[in-house]
Each structure stands twice: as C-alpha cells, then as structure tokens.
Amino acid sequence: MLIDSHVNLHAPQFDQDRDAVIDRARAAGVRMMVEISDRLTTFEATHGLAMAHPDIWCTVGVHPHEAKDAADLTADHLLTLAQRPRVVGVGECGLDFHYDLSPREVQARVFRQHVAAARTSGLPLVIHTREADDVMAGILKEEMADGPFRFLMHCYTSGSELAELAAEMGAWFSVSGIATFKAAEEVRGVIRAMPTDRIIVETDCPYLAPAPHRGRRNEPAYIGHVLDKLADIRGWSRDEAEARTTDAFFALFDRIPRPAD
C-alpha cells in the first residue's frame, strides 16, 4: 500500500484546499498518512486532523527551528500529550545547524527531552538533523547508553558516517522527494546503503516536491514518485519497494493497526 510517513497538512499552505488535498491523496492510492507535529502551539490542529480522518495518525513534538519557543519543554509534558488517541510518535525534533533559528544549546536540550519521552513511552522518535552530524552522533550515543529507544532519521540528507552509526543503533530512515533531485547524488549514495528492512518514504509536504513537480507545493498524492525513485536507486521493482516500505512502516509505527491488504 502507499503510505506517506511525514505530512504537514496543518501548514497554512493547505488552508484553502486541505480537504481536496486529502481527497487527491486517497484518489492516488495513499491509504495512510502520518501528520507531523512541529510545534506545540499547532498540536491541536495536528491532532484534530488525526481525529477527523481514519487514515491519518499523528505525532507530538517540537521542530528544532521552534525550540527557542519551547526552551522549558519537559519529557513529562510530551508524555501527557502522547497519551491522546491516534498519537503514534514523538517529534519532529532534533538539530538544525543550517538555519540556526534556535540557539544550538537550546536545540540540544529540547531534543534530549524528546528522546526521554520516546524512551519512556516506547513510541518512535522522528528526528530532523541538518549540518549537525557530529553533535547528533554524540547525543545519540549518550542517550542510547542511558537506555534504548527507537528512532527514524526523517528525510535523511546528512553524511554517510552518521547514517552508519544510526543504522548500527537500529534506526529507520525515510526517503523524500530530494532523492529525485538531479544534484542529489550523494543522497542517493547514502540511500543505497540504508538497511533494507528499515526504509520508508515520505513527502514532507508542502515542502520538497519530487520531480516532476519540483518547485510546486508538495502533496501526499505525489508519494508514488518518491517510491518509484527509491525502487530505481535500490534496484527493486515497484511492487517490491511498496512491500518493503510498508513492512518497515508498520514495524516502526507499531501503534497503528495494519489494515487488511
């Protein structure tokens, strides 16, 4: 089945036609979507989407860009919100040293609270990491030493060394429309080495539209283009790519019941 593991349908880019976007996704064969929380001030909208649609689930978390506005965030607060129905993950959280929209030490502190919440709840952690490979590697090592947790390296575009370390720790990886970009050969090289049974796909809509839609607003309906590119990169048939990513998705997001095929 087609699954979009990372959508931002609460984003203002969808305010004029959100229902139509969801309808187009279903018409394109998308049977499940995970609506991602990027800040607590919009969590009610994120959670509301999951409650309103039987094929949408959600996470709870704070993106590193927004960490400055949640500097006092605690794992306990995340755990309270994670107890709501249809919440199946913690994040999107992590480190972004490209834009540095929040102080780096605040990003790290807020990220560690997410790790603690994921460890306690057993929910998978959705990690964003950009231009922070060494610091991310250090935090993952330290936190894993304190107790295991499951995690997803979302829309992975970082280096091969961090990818190898994360894979050794049991990470899942998600592939986005970036894999279709002509200049993204390094990303495709990392994708070729990802663990076969721990790869899933996402759009990260409304961002990162895959070819042939690059430059436009992204939608879940375009996830098939990402899946096709993943199949091409890994030398899989389309059916094999769909089966492998579906199995990997339900192994990671194990709070979501798997529907009958």
Strand and helix map with partners:
Layout: E1 2-7, H1 18-27, E2 30-35, H2 43-52, E3 56-60, H3 75-82, E4 87-96, H4 104-121, E5 125-130, H5 133-146, E6 151-153, H6 160-168, E7 172-175, H7 185-192, E8 199-201, H8 223-234, H9 238-252
Parallel strand pairs: 1-2, 2-3, 3-4, 4-5, 5-6, 6-7, 7-8
Helix pairs in contact: 3-4, 5-6, 8-9
Low-confidence stretches: none
Query: Taking Cα atoms only, what radius of gyration do you get, to the nearest Å?
Result: 17 Å
* Secondary structure category: alpha/beta
What overall form do the CA principal axes indicate?
A: globular
Distance between the termini: 8 Å
What topology, given as strand order, has the largest sheet? 1-2-3-4-5-6-7-8
Helix content estimate: 25-40%
Total of helices: 9
Mean pLDDT: 98
N-to-C SSE series? Answer: EHEHEHEHEHEHEHEHH
Task: Tell me what portion of residues adopts beta-strand conformation.
Answer: 15-25%
Q: What is the tally of beta strands?
A: 8
Largest sheet: 8 strands, parallel
What would you note in describing this structure?
The structure is a single chain. The chain has 261 residues and is an alpha/beta fold. It starts with a strand and ends in a 9-residue tail after the last helix. The protein is globular. An 8-stranded parallel β-sheet has the order 1-2-3-4-5-6-7-8. Helix 6 (160-168) links the parallel strand 6 (151-153) and strand 7 (172-175). The model has no long low-confidence stretch (mean pLDDT 98). It contains 9 helices and 8 strands. It has helices at 18-27, 43-52, 75-82, 104-121, 133-146, 160-168, 185-192, 223-234, 238-252, and strands spanning 2-7, 30-35, 56-60, 87-96, 125-130, 151-153, 172-175, 199-201. Helix content is 40%, strand content 16%. Helix 8 (223-234) packs across helix 9 (238-252).
